[in-house]
Design brief:
The protein has 248 residues and is an alpha+beta fold. The chain contains 12 helices and 7 strands. It has 3 domains: 6-79, Orthogonal Bundle (Arc Repressor Mutant, subunit A), CATH 1.10.10.10; 93-157, Alpha-Beta Plaits (2-Layer Sandwich); 173-246.
Length: 248
Amino acid sequence: MGIKERRSKILLAFCLLGGKSAKAVEMDEVFLKVFDLSLNQKTKSTLQALIKKGSLAVDESRKNTYSLTDVGFAEVGKEFPYFRFFKQDWDGVWRILSYEIPEKKRELRDRLRREVSSWGLGPWHRSFWVTPHPIISDLKNLVSGKEEQRYIQAFEASHEFGDREVLIEKVWGKIRLEKLYKDMFKEWHEILSRDIAKLDKFAMIVSSYTNIIRMDPGLPKELMGKTWIGYEALDLFSEIKEILLSQA
C-alpha cells in the first residue's frame, strides 16, 4: 500500500476502518492482510508504544481490539492532513513558512522538505510555503535547537485581499487533484467489477485511496467548498468498506 513505516500504517488502518466515529476495530486476519502487516514482535511492540502514548485505546471486552483516540487522530492528521478538518474546524488562520538555506547546506534543506512534506504545505514561491493547517508548534518542535532553525521564518496571518480560488489553484493545483480523484473513482469501479475475492478488492481499494490522500493537502471546506470531491471520496470509501468487509 506504499507505506513502509509500521507506526503510520497501523494508525492509518485504524483511521480508515474505524471511520468518522473511531469505532473499535479488531486486528484480525482481514486487518493484517489488507494493510500488509503480520502480528509479529515488531508489530506488537509498536502497538504497545501507541497504547502507552494514548494514540490507541484498548477494548477490554474483545481480544486484539483497539480504537483510535483523539491523540492518535492528531498523529494521523499530521501525516495525512486530508483527515484533519473532518473533525476539526478551521480557525481561519494561514501559516506561512519561509526558509533560505544556503546551497552548501543542501542536506539541511532536503531534510526540512522531507520532514514537512506531509503537512499540507503548498509552494507559493521558491522557499515560501503556505498552509491553513496549525503546523507552527510542530515546526518549532522539529527545528528547535537544530542548525536549520537559524534559516527559518514562520508567520500566522489572515487573508485580507485577493482571489482565494486563484491562490488555491496556484499553490495546490485543485483542478489536477480533482482529476486524480475522478480517475480513482474509475479505477474503483474497475476493481469492483473484477471476478476476484472481495478481500482482494478491498485491499486494492485501500491502496488506491492511500495513494491519493497522501497527495491531498486536506484543505478545509471554507476553501474547497462543501461539495469537494475529496469529501465524496471518504463517503464512497466507507460504503465500499461496509459492503466488501461484511461479505468477506
